[in-house]
Structure formats: C-alpha cells, structure tokens
Here is the input.
Amino acid sequence: MTWRIYRHPSESEGKPDSSNEDQNSDIESIAPPIDPTAQIHADLKAAKAEAAEWQDRFLRKAAEFENFRKRSEKEKIDSVMLAKSSILLEFLPIADACERALESIGDPKNKPEGLEQYHEGVELLYKQLLDSLSRVGAVPMEAKGKPFDPHLHEAISREETTEFEENTITEELRRGYLFRDRLLRAAQVKVAVHPQKKDKA
Here is the structure.
C-alpha cells in the first residue's frame, strides 16, 4: 500500500516563493548608472585638495628648515666672535699699561737723559699693538666729551662741573674697545653732573 502525504493549499500559500525573492534582490542590486564626467570632476577636486595639502606641508617644512639654517649660522658666527673676543681681551691690559706708562712719562724732553728713548720704545710698542688689534677688527673708542651711553660706558663716578653738559663724559679712566661694531670692553668714565643750586636764605 502506498501512502501519500496530503498538504493543505494554505500551507503552500504561507511560504514565500524563493524564485520571486531572487528576482527582487537582483533588481535592487542593480545601481543607477554613474556619470563618468561627474566622477572625473570629483576625482580631480579630491586630487587638487590633496596636492594643496602636500604643498602646504612642504612650504611649512621648507620655512622651518630655513629658520633652522639661519639660526645655526648665527650661532656659529656668535661662537667664533666669542672665541676671538676672549683672546683679544687678554691683550687689552697690555695696551692699558702702555697708556699709563706714556702718561706717567709725560714730555720726555723735560726728563732726565735716556728717558726719551724709553718713551719712544713704549710708544712704538703701543702703536704696534693697536695696529695689530685694528687689523683683526678691534678698535678703541673715544669717550671724553661724548654723551654717556650705558651700553658702551661704565660710570665709575660723577663729577660736579659746569664745563660740560650734564650726563657728558668728563674723563676716561679706562679705554673701551669695539670688536667688529660690537662692544668688546666698556669704557670706565667719569660723568658730568651740574651742581645743585642752593636756595638763598
């Protein structure tokens, strides 16, 4: 005997037709056609934006490198100047000693015999020293009669006088020097101050 399974028509109606689902999914998966011109414009815009970003980065790095190069070059020059200045400072006391010796001798013609030759020797030594300093860029400053400048002069004392304008250097106690337009050693000076007027009783 053969048995047959009977299915109610309602059972088959409740299940979705798989063939219909496949057809619907195929229809949904089909995307609308893309406009090639619009795509090219979009890609070009994105490429330009990326190029501009990279150019900005390059310019920033180039500026940073240029600043670093200038800073390194300045530091190198300053180091060389500092080394030379330290050496030159060692010779300035010799120049000071020559100046004091020449001042103490005064006019050798009015001194005992033999002092004139000593004066000439010191004067020659002093001149050769100044010439050597000048060749490397170190030169003495003239201070007497000039306005006092705290960047160039060191005020040792004040002198009450009416012969000079107030705040004018009346005497140079130790000569100052410049090295390539930079201060090598400040001049030690006296500065004029006008006497205070006393009130009449």
Summary: The longest strand covers residues 153-160. The two ends are 158 Å apart (CA to CA). The chain is about 55% helix and 15% strand.
